[in-house]
């Protein structure tokens, strides 16, 4: 730690003091120092000051930010709250992960989301029913396009020709064309910063309101891990950047968001300005 290794000892010779200022983010070392002040440990004092206590800030503008941002982001960035799992985009992941795999049912209408592999990523197909229960997932990589298209087609046909939303950015075009020629119900969803923001925002609300049933963690460990690892950060411009952590995957997240897109909560507002790498 910079404070322990470089700063604290440099204050001793003049009996100096330090004012440590930060936005709370998780319950790490800064939180431990804050707790020292709250307990009254010798030499420590601490305060937290929500933005609305600052008389120089416009309260109406702060309330506009409350409406624009996810609740957890607002509580941390404006309410000065230390939150468990800080930086996580999605809430209630484990609470929603109570389902099991289910075979196709006659008369049931299904929705599917397909996120296609790019280099070392995975192609992921997620299928859910009209009640937003995830019933089937296939995840694979390093297969040629024809094999991928045939594999996806077989699953989608089995689930009553599920209506599908497909990432058609770049490498997605040939798969999209092949699935259309096969007579499947395929919707193109090109990925841009704006369109991804809309997808993630809708999935955030769906999980916040517990409107979705995910497979149990032991059945879908990759998907649950990706959802819980998906993080946001605030840019210098005040926008949110949402992404998988460095070296991680977001294929399950995006396929799930595509599958849930047509079943998103009504009146979803675009609350985030999200940047994607």
Task: Name the features.
277 residues, disordered C terminus, single chain, five-stranded mixed β-sheet, alpha/beta, 2 domains
Number of strands: 10
Radius of gyration of CA atoms, rounded to a whole number: 23 Å
Give me the secondary-structure category.
Answer: alpha/beta
**Main sheet: strands, sense, barrel:** 5 strands, mixed
Shape: elongated
State the end-to-end distance: 29 Å
Classify the beta-strand content into a percent band.
Answer: 15-25%
CATH structural fold name of the largest domain: Nucleotidyltransferase, domain 5
Indicate the CATH class of the largest domain: Alpha Beta
Question: Which residues form runs of ≥5 with pLDDT under 50?
Answer: 267-277
Q: Largest beta sheet: what is the strand line-up? A: 4-3-2-5-6
CATH architecture of the largest domain: 2-Layer Sandwich
